[in-house]
Amino acid sequence: MKSNPMSDTPKRKRLVLCMGAHCNAGGRAQPLYDHLRAQLGDPVPAFMAHGPVYWETANCLSYCGAGPNCVLYPDDVWIHHADLPALKAFLDEHLGEDDEG
Ligand code: FES
Protein backbone atom coordinates (compact mmCIF):
# COMPACT_ATOMS: atom_id res chain seq x y z
CA MET A 1 0.00 0.00 0.00
CA LYS A 2 1.39 3.38 -1.00
CA SER A 3 1.46 6.17 1.56
CA ASN A 4 0.60 9.72 0.71
CA PRO A 5 3.91 11.61 0.52
CA MET A 6 2.09 14.80 1.55
CA SER A 7 0.67 13.31 4.74
CA ASP A 8 3.91 13.84 6.68
CA THR A 9 4.47 17.37 5.36
CA PRO A 10 3.98 19.96 8.10
CA LYS A 11 1.05 22.13 7.20
CA ARG A 12 1.79 25.80 6.83
CA LYS A 13 -0.41 28.02 8.96
CA ARG A 14 -2.38 30.70 7.18
CA LEU A 15 -3.95 33.52 9.14
CA VAL A 16 -6.67 35.50 7.42
CA LEU A 17 -7.89 38.85 8.72
CA CYS A 18 -11.08 40.21 7.26
CA MET A 19 -10.77 43.84 6.22
CA GLY A 20 -14.18 43.93 4.61
CA ALA A 21 -16.72 46.71 4.95
CA HIS A 22 -18.45 45.22 8.00
CA CYS A 23 -15.39 43.96 9.83
CA ASN A 24 -13.51 47.18 9.26
CA ALA A 25 -16.45 49.52 9.83
CA GLY A 26 -15.10 52.70 11.35
CA GLY A 27 -11.57 51.36 10.94
CA ARG A 28 -11.99 48.91 13.82
CA ALA A 29 -9.96 46.17 12.08
CA GLN A 30 -7.08 48.53 11.32
CA PRO A 31 -5.32 48.03 14.71
CA LEU A 32 -5.50 44.28 14.08
CA TYR A 33 -3.95 44.73 10.65
CA ASP A 34 -1.23 46.96 12.08
CA HIS A 35 -0.42 44.45 14.81
CA LEU A 36 -0.22 41.51 12.41
CA ARG A 37 1.99 43.49 10.09
CA ALA A 38 4.31 44.34 12.98
CA GLN A 39 4.41 40.73 14.17
CA LEU A 40 4.38 38.78 10.90
CA GLY A 41 5.42 41.27 8.22
CA ASP A 42 3.44 42.32 5.21
CA PRO A 43 0.45 40.19 4.23
CA VAL A 44 1.15 38.02 1.20
CA PRO A 45 -0.90 35.77 -1.04
CA ALA A 46 -0.30 32.03 -0.66
CA PHE A 47 1.86 31.68 -3.76
CA MET A 48 4.34 34.21 -2.35
CA ALA A 49 4.40 32.83 1.19
CA HIS A 50 7.53 31.48 2.84
CA GLY A 51 8.05 29.91 6.23
CA PRO A 52 5.65 28.06 8.51
CA VAL A 53 3.21 30.97 9.01
CA TYR A 54 1.89 33.61 6.71
CA TRP A 55 -1.08 35.89 6.71
CA GLU A 56 -3.34 37.65 4.30
CA THR A 57 -6.45 39.77 4.27
CA ALA A 58 -9.90 38.98 2.95
CA ASN A 59 -12.78 41.16 1.83
CA CYS A 60 -15.35 38.95 3.56
CA LEU A 61 -15.31 35.68 5.50
CA SER A 62 -19.11 35.34 5.58
CA TYR A 63 -19.47 36.12 9.29
CA CYS A 64 -20.11 39.83 8.87
CA GLY A 65 -22.37 40.12 11.90
CA ALA A 66 -19.63 38.74 14.15
CA GLY A 67 -16.81 40.96 12.90
CA PRO A 68 -14.08 41.83 13.07
CA ASN A 69 -13.15 38.27 12.16
CA CYS A 70 -9.89 36.43 11.91
CA VAL A 71 -9.30 32.74 11.15
CA LEU A 72 -6.30 30.44 11.32
CA TYR A 73 -5.99 27.55 8.87
CA PRO A 74 -5.58 24.62 8.73
CA ASP A 75 -6.66 24.57 12.38
CA ASP A 76 -9.89 26.39 11.44
CA VAL A 77 -9.95 28.39 14.66
CA TRP A 78 -11.68 31.76 14.65
CA ILE A 79 -11.79 34.99 16.53
CA HIS A 80 -15.11 36.78 16.24
CA HIS A 81 -15.68 40.31 17.54
CA ALA A 82 -11.90 40.57 17.56
CA ASP A 83 -10.09 43.40 19.26
CA LEU A 84 -6.40 43.88 19.89
CA PRO A 85 -6.21 42.06 23.27
CA ALA A 86 -8.14 39.12 21.81
CA LEU A 87 -5.87 39.00 18.78
CA LYS A 88 -2.73 39.08 20.93
CA ALA A 89 -4.05 36.26 23.10
CA PHE A 90 -4.99 34.31 19.97
CA LEU A 91 -1.52 34.70 18.48
CA ASP A 92 0.09 33.72 21.75
CA GLU A 93 -2.07 30.62 22.04
CA HIS A 94 -1.90 29.43 18.45
CA LEU A 95 1.34 30.79 17.05
CA GLY A 96 3.42 31.29 20.16
CA GLU A 97 3.75 34.99 19.42
CA ASP A 98 5.19 37.22 22.08
CA ASP A 99 2.46 39.31 23.67
CA GLU A 100 4.73 42.27 24.26
CA GLY A 101 3.82 43.96 20.98
S1 FES B 1 -16.98 41.79 6.02
FE1 FES B 1 -15.82 40.53 7.38
S2 FES B 1 -16.94 38.67 7.42
FE2 FES B 1 -18.00 39.87 5.97
In a few lines, what is going on in this structure?
Helices cover 23% and strands 19% of the residues. The protein is an alpha+beta fold. The structure holds FE2/S2 (inorganic) cluster.
Description:
This protein has one domain: 3-Layer(aba) Sandwich (Glutaredoxin), CATH 3.40.30.10. The protein has two helices and four strands; from the N terminus they run E-H-E-E-E-H. It starts with 12 loop residues before the first strand and ends in a 6-residue tail after the last helix. The protein has a four-stranded mixed β-sheet, with helices on one face. It has about 100 residues and is an alpha+beta fold. The model has no long low-confidence stretch (mean pLDDT about 90). The structure holds FE2/S2 (inorganic) cluster. FE2/S2 (inorganic) cluster binds next to loops.
How many angstroms separate the termini? 49 Å
Bound molecules: FE2/S2 (inorganic) cluster
- Please tell me what the overall shape is: globular
Biggest sheet features: 4 strands, mixed
Q: What is the topology, as strand order, of the major beta sheet?
A: 2-1-3-4
What is the structural class? alpha+beta
The proportion of residues in beta strands is: 15-25%
In angstroms, what is the radius of gyration?
14 Å
CATH homologous superfamily descriptor = Glutaredoxin
Q: Helix tally? A: 2
- Count of spatially separate domains: 1
Succession of helices and strands: EHEEEH
CATH class: Alpha Beta
Kindly state the percentage of residues in helix: 10-25%
- Annotated CATH architecture: 3-Layer(aba) Sandwich
Task: Briefly note the CATH topology name.
Answer: Glutaredoxin
What do the pLDDT scores average to? Answer: 89
